Amino acid sequence: MNRQLPQSGFSLMELMIVVAIVAILGAVAYPGYSSYIQRGRITEATVTLSELRIKLEQYYQDHRNYGSTSAACGIALPTDSSLRFTYTCNWGPGGNDQGFLLTATGAASGGMAGYAFTVDHTNAKQTTAFPGVTGTKNCWILKKGDSC
Question: How many helices (H) and strands (E) does the chain have?
């Protein structure tokens, strides 16, 4: 009646194989995940620029200009330190209050250094800085490999 049950469990070799497979899957998935995170961060800039543009158009309807000084448009810009972009507004072409240029510049503290997007009073969108892209593009580039 003293019968021994067979040993159950994983051998060290089986465990090492599983760890190796998980490591390979992680190495393959990480670049895609990083790219996905960057695209999500870029969306912050493009959505905010679009919202600010709408607010400036509403301001223009009320005041018949886009602001009182060349370095400050007629609306408040977001300044929250948790944002991954900094936003600026200047008078647009012609240097008068009948145009504007909104700019979103990536903040290094938010992991977005090297990114910059603009939109003006004619809704002309530009990517002025994007890692791996040379020159200014006449659209908002949202991910690596995009083109206008």
Answer: 1, 4
